[in-house]
Amino acid sequence: MSLEQRLDDLEARVEIDRLITRYARAVDEDIDAELNAIYAEDAVSEIIPWSGKPAVGRAKVVASFRDYMSKFTNRKRFIVNRVIDLTGTDTATGWANWFVMQAGDGDSYVGWGKYDWDFRRNAGVWEIEKMVITVDCMTTKEKGWADLESLVAAYPD
Q1: Is the CATH number 3.10.450.50 carried by domain 3-143?
Q2: Is 120 a residue whose pLDDT tops 60?
Q3: Cis, bond preceding 156 (omega within 30 deg of 0)
Q4: Which of 15, 19, 54, 89 is most deeply packed, by most CB within 10 A?
């Protein structure tokens, strides 16, 4: 691979990483303009198991996040273990784990899961084309999340 190609790939990965960070900040801080800017016009988003079916189109994707943002406040998410794979000159996929702390209806919530993304560069700008969020756990402080006996089954004999 040429030095120029390696530099192009590195710059693409940095821009996609920034796109992921922009998403997290937009959702945590209620930045509607940023939410609209990061999704492709034909974006698809799904939150498993909550959404029931994918939201299709930027307007519906953003509306689904606005609905989520109306239900939970004081959101702080952490996105870790990111993997970004360039699949073409203007396409990429990604995967990461997430952890979130937030409040809703007077309760404190903690949750975690994973993201799966498809990214596309459109007119030189990276956008989220597809986003699947899998919720592995979302529970209240009262219900608990640290009781390993109720969360993790015993190791088989």
Answers
A1: yes
A2: yes
A3: no
A4: 19
What values do phi and psi take at 154, rounded to 5? -65, 150
Question: Which residues partner with 126 through β-bridges?
Answer: 121
Where b means 16+ CB within 10 Å and e means fewer, 6-28 reads: eeeeeebbebbeebbebbbebbb
State the greatest distance between any 2 C-alpha atoms of the chain, in Å, as a whole number. Answer: 56
Residue 144 has pLDDT above 80, yes or no: no
Task: With 0.85 as the threshold, say if the pTM is over it.
Answer: yes
Q: Which residues contact 8 (CB under 8 A, 6 or more apart)?
A: none
What is the tens place of the pLDDT at every residue in 51-103?
A: 889 999 999 999 999 999 999 999 999 999 999 999 999 999 999 999 999 99
Could you give the CA distance from residue 151 to residue 91 in angstroms, rounded to a whole number? 38
59's tokens: 């307007």
